[in-house]
Amino acid sequence: MKHWFASLSKRPEVPAIRLVALISAWFLLFLNCSFWRFVWERTEIAHFSDVLFLLSVPLVIFTILYLAVSLLLVPYIGKPILIILLIISGGTNYLMYEFGVFIDVDMIRNTFQTHPGEVKDLISLRGVLWLMLGGILPAMLLAWVKIRFRPFVKEATGRLARCGILLLCLLLLAPFVYKGYSSFCRNNRQFRRLINPQNYLYATFRYFQQEAQGQRKFTKLDDNAHLTPEAANSKKVFVLVLGETARAMNFATNGYERDTNPKLKQQDIVNFKNVLAAGTSTAVSVPSIFSFKPAKNFDASDAKYTENLLDLLQQTGYQVLWKENDNGCKGVCNRVPTIEMDLQDERFCNGSYCQDEILLQDLEKYIRQSDGSVFIVLHTIGSHGPTYYLRYPPEFKRFTPTCDTKEIQTCTQEQIRNTYDNTILYTDYIAASVIEILKKFPQYETGMMYVSDHGESLGEKGLYLHGLPYFIAPHEQTDVPMIIWLNNAMQKADHINYACLKKKAAEDAFSHDYIAHSLLSLMGVESVVYDKTFDFFDGCRTAPISGKRQ
Q1: I need a surface site. Which of 151, 168, 287, 329 has the fewest CB within 10 A?
Q2: Tally of helices (H runs) and strands (E runs) in the chain
């Protein structure tokens, strides 16, 4: 027995040149599951050349991995680096395969800006098993073995020789598979975002590169922005309910067959039926919503170094307040008063998250005690997944059976849809409750706007959650609900033809690009940043707005 334990404790030696091949093969075969599924699903086998293309892909990926590992596996630092890569890749492999995630710069930005509660929601037994088997166990094995390096010249020439053989094979194969690669890469540019670990290494490098470029002087938008005489002599109260992960197709106001908006449908709302989000993640969409730049020219890193809609409103005299119940304001609220929700409030919270009803607490009191015009943002947690079942109180569990687990990929489509629809039903209650509070102030010009930051995939085409690169994202992730309600006083003060606005909202196409300009106009702020082509009220005013605006 003693001899057996002694032999077990003896660490085996593995030649470095052999370990390079073993690690490359592990990444190829076990840590790129999502990539292989993607290639298989998008390759039609009609000719022998298609078979040859499929057979050559593993050789190409193995060659890339072999070259990379050959450079990394050096004495002293190679083992720790590869151990870290194995563990991270085990986690990314699970996320990509189970949720259809593509890893790019925006996904890395989301990772660095994520809330601990979001990470907790993604931790499950299934995920832990993927991480253990794919990443942690091979990393432990790598840490255990001894690596035997030959003298430098022999080690280097041996690796170069093997790399040369692999590259030569590719060169000989190239004339026969070139057309297949050309067609596949042209039609499936997103495939590189699935190759582990190249995807997250490159995306992380680009993220820090963008952040470094963003370390610049703070930019003010317009020192001369000011209120129109009418706005300066009246009290406006506006509440922007910033939704999370709500998709347009599940709103009854947009024609959804289920009555997910029973309370909003009882209000005199304007429903925008065709609205595109600026991005598929909160880190991109939220800063873009408050920016005056169109999404195509917007960089999320600008938020920390550039003023936005809230800055101009505060500068011109508005009492601005941001109430936070999601994953932070992404730099938008850095310069305005902000209230974080108390996670220990047992009426609405579980210690990690709060249900959105907490945002309504003291809202009426705050409006009553305010001295001048008020602009309030309620940043909701809305329909944030994968724990949809935690986003609403029991009384809103109308659609059943539900998916009461974070492992949503194990639930049926019906269960996921039911649970998600219950979150929309609760969102309907929150938005309608804001309107009811505002109705208590008929003496003021009041209004409410609801808009979601992005949509959500619920298993359609094997995709879950959100965050896909925008150019390949399905409409479930890009089409968002947007609703506005204005009381009679605000309609009259801003000369808005409500019937015209309803018709325009139902027929025309809009995007997040319109929000900052439209709200700046509605709040009566004159500024050089205003562009009426992005004002959805323009064309539905019965009289010109006073003052000169560009």
Answers
A1: 151
A2: 20, 15
- Number of Cβ within 10 Å of residue 494's Cβ equals 24
Reading the block at residue 135, the tokens are 């990443």
For residues 492 and 542, what is the distance between their CA atoms, to the nearest angstrom? 9
**Buried residues in 2-22 as b, exposed as e (16+ CB within 10 A):** eeeeeeeeeeeeeebbebbbe
Instruction: Please report the pLDDT score of residue 122 as a whole number.
Output: 76
* Rounded CA separation 332/242 (Å): 12
Helix 16-30 × helix 78-99 angle, to 10°: 10
pLDDT at 50: 78
| Amino acid type, 35 | F
Residue 252 has a CB neighbour count (10 Å cut-off) of 19
Radius of gyration in angstroms for the set of CA atoms belonging to the chain, rounded to a whole number = 27
Q: Strand pairing partners for 236?
A: 445
| CA 437 from centroid of its chain's CA atoms | 31
Low-confidence ranges of the chain (pLDDT < 70): 1-9, 115-118, 182, 186, 213-215, 545-550
Q: Among all chains, which residue has been given the structure tokens 């150019």?
A: 471
| The CA-based dihedral angle spanning residues 332, 526, 447, 259, taken in that order and rounded to the nearest 10 degrees | -70
**pLDDT at res. 214:** 57
Residue 74 CB contacts under 8 Å (≥ 6 apart), including other chains: none
Specify the pLDDT at position 545: 65
**C-alpha angle 337-342-344 in degrees, rounded to nearest 5:** 170
Rounded CA-CA distance 455/279 in Å is: 9
Query: What's at 261, amino acid-wise?
Result: N
Compute how many other C-beta atoms are within 10 angstroms of the C-beta atom of residue 486. 25
Write the pLDDT tens digit of every residue in 350-399: 888 899 999 999 999 999 999 999 999 999 999 998 999 999 999 999 99
Burial 138-173 (b: 16+ CB within 10 A, else e): bbeebeeeebeeeeeeebeebbeebbeebeeeeeeb
